[in-house]
Amino acid sequence: MKKMNPKNVDRAGKAILIAASTATTYVIKKYGPKVTKKIIEVLTKRF
């Protein structure tokens, strides 16, 4: 793997955060708050 410079890492991190936030809002609308709490727990454990 290439060494990533901080700019690329930051950009990727922001993209991941945006994707995660859009996914969570979608899930909140579809399944409600109980499921989203579990998903947020899983996401925070991974990062």
List the helices and strands and how they pair.
Elements: H1 6-31, H2 33-46
Helix pairs in contact: 1-2
Number of helices: 2
* Overall pLDDT level: 77
From the helix content, strand content and strand pairing, which structural class follows? mainly alpha
Estimate the strand proportion. under 5%
The radius of gyration over CA amounts to: 14 Å
In sequence order, what are the helices and strands, one letter per element? HH
Kindly describe this structure.
With 47 residues, this protein is an all-alpha fold. It has a domain at 23-47. Helix content is 85%, strand content 0%. It has 2 helices and no strands. It has helices at residues 6-31, 33-46. Helix 1 packs antiparallel against helix 2. The relative contact order is 0.09. The mean pLDDT is 77.
Task: Write a brief caption for the model.
The chain has 47 residues and is an all-alpha fold.
